[in-house]
Specification:
The chain is an alpha+beta fold. Helices cover about 15% and strands about 20% of the residues. The chain has four helices and eleven strands; from the N terminus they run E-E-E-E-E-E-E-H-H-H-H-E-E-E-E. A hairpin with a 4-residue loop joins strand 2 and strand 3. The protein is globular and about 50 Å long.
């Protein structure tokens, strides 16, 4: 087997030879290697959503997560880590865009997260927070990427076997930064390598909520009547350091805007100390 790496194209040449009949076989497989700090999620089906049976292992299942259904997803790239303060600061400098401090100051003048429009000292490698959906989408577009869809996000977290957490079906507080960890603040991205998904994506559960590109819609076959369904609210996924494992910190949980206080229901503009994002990219 010979592997040649040239630019961003990886070419693998596999040569099989049978000594019994003296013949040979050559097969060439060519694909683009992932961009830096991104992971390739291959095309294919996976199980999306929850079943009532998930409650057997102590999980509170949201009605908007059902029914569980098979979904085909085209191959895509997704960021290995959540977008950090340092990365977002490069975007701010390059574009003159708003910083999280600007948005936070408008709502909470006494509680700025980015003092003097600079990332918090010592937290450059923490996920950027206090960004609304429009800021997250603008950053991804500037970076030549996009926000992942809800389907893409769940596949990156869940693999193909219907697991409840990226590492399996048993919750382990040592593998993620949720309320159970007791840290009460974000941690540097990649701080929980044992909680990585089978595809190699970090921090999909806990640390900060993550924006997706998708509208909050009912799943096919779901008869639930919810006022928030439709093209009104974008979905957040993953939970945060402020959310408990039940019911929020699971790969199937969907941020439900209609359960929020009235003043926060315009969730596309909603932001907070525990709201961040990561980007995706179409090959």
């Amino acid at each position: 087997m010979k592997i040649l790496l040239k630019g961003t194209v990886l070419t693998m040449q596999v040569i099989a030879c049978s000594l019994l009949i003296g013949c040979g076989l050559s097969q060439f497989i060519t694909y683009k290697a992932p961009p830096p700090d991104m992971v390739y999620i291959p095309a294919g089906y996976f199980l999306m959503g929850s079943t009532e049976r998930d409650g057997v292992v102590g999980v509170e299942v949201g009605l908007d997560e059902m029914p569980q259904h098979r979904v085909y997803v085209k191959g895509f790239y997704i960021d290995r880590y959540e977008v950090t303060n340092a990365e977002y600061y490069e975007y701010v400098k390059a574009t003159g865009g708003y910083t999280p401090a600007t948005w936070d100051y408008r709502q909470h003048p006494s509680g700025q997260v980015w003092p003097l429009d600079m990332p918090p000292p010592g937290e450059e490698d923490h996920p950027v927070t206090d960004v609304d959906w429009y800021d997250a989408e603008a950053y991804c577009r500037w970076a030549g990427k996009r926000l992942p869809t809800e389907v893409e996000w769940e596949k990156a977290a869940r693999w193909t076997d219907g697991r409840i957490w990226p590492w399996g079906n048993r919750f382990d507080p040592a593998k993620t930064n949720t309320l159970e960890s007791g840290k009460n603040w974000s941690t540097a991205v990649g701080s929980y390598p044992d909680g990585v998904s089978p595809y190699g994506v970090h921090d999909l559960i806990g640390n900060v909520w993550e924006w997706t590109a998708s509208w909050y819609q009912a799943y096919p076959g779901n008869t639930l009547k919810r006022a928030a369904f439709g093209e009104k609210y974008r979905v957040l996924r993953g939970g945060s350091y402020l959310t408990p494992v039940q019911p929020f910190a699971r790969v199937t949980h969907r941020y439900a805007p209609d359960l929020l206080p009235m003043e926060l229901r315009d969730s596309n503009w909603h932001t907070g100390f525990d709201v961040g994002f990561r980007c995706a990219k179409t090959p």
